[in-house]
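Structure tokens please, single chain.
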Amino acid sequence: MQLSITFRLSLLQFLQYFVWGSWFVTAGNYWLNGVHYNGREVGSIYASVAIAASISPFVIGALADRFFSAEKLLGILHILGSVLLLAISNSTTYSHTYTLVLLYMLCYLPTFSLSNALCFHHIADAKNDFPRIRVWGTISWIIAGLLVGFKHIETTPIPFKLAAMASLVHGIYCFTLPNTPPKLNKHNTLFQNLMSDEMKLLLKEKNFIILIASIGLICIPSSFYYSFVNPFLNEIGMHNAAGKMAIGQVTEIIIMLALPFLFKNMRLKIILAIGLFLWGIRYGLFIIGIESGKEYWHLISLAIHGIAFTCSMFVAQIYLDTRVPVALKSTAQGFYSFLIMGVMALIGSYIAGETVYLNTNADGSHHWQAIWIIPTVIGVISAFFFLVLFKGKEKA
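Here you go.
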């Protein structure tokens, strides 16, 4: 019996995020406490993610628009990624690890925009259908986090090996997906695509620029989360930190499934502003938790992650898909990745790494209250910036 397209795309998202969730948020803990890189080195490794995001999604998204089927590109990139993940798991020197992570990210990061563009190509209503598909990526992230947390392997290379196996399976599966052919004339160049009348109009739209700038600022607090929240939770003695971080994915599922309702009943501006504001407030709750000694403040902060992510970055991605013509969807997703996961995440990773480095005590512990002030302030400022400058009363 032939499986439905919704099921096949849901499995695509499940595998996509299982690979990512198996290692990404716990790698900082392994590099800090397993092989003993310092905060600046860990920050620079995560910055290599942003460097790759500045290059590969932008180019490969355009290739998918012009030359190659998206599912074939996905398969090749995930299989190459599995080999690199195995190499990362055996690396114990900073320079070697940095190089391997950079190479891996050059392969992996384009798969976000490619897999999303593939889904958007095969579904009729992005606002209603895509959240129900994308939610399976969040479920897989939860499963991966619980697995790593319950096995207490955050400070070992095992998560990289787990991700490598999942990446190989994912790569093979991608070749079974429906054909998603390129749509543009093969004689168009990437420059011509970006200089098209449609893209020029998009870049002249004030609301679009304000949205991109606001989400870009949020990349700084998000860099703190992905690089250093897991080491922080382990350092303060939270049991099963990786598993408890999955609380954020539980709330992400709830909000993601509620998006069709929110789109019908709330202004886009309000949904996005809530997400931006919560990115800052969550780190303030970490500070309260440290000062009070009450773990529930940390758990509330972890739960807020899913709301903040979905109402800001995820909603912004759907907004972007509704603002570009069909033929430029992969290029537009790549453009978004270039700005958000690339340029701004690069800045955010270096700020996070330098902040942790400067607040490292002589015994290797950290002054976390001082560290969390930075993302708190930036998150709140970005929300007010968006509320004041973004104009529009339309429903999402």
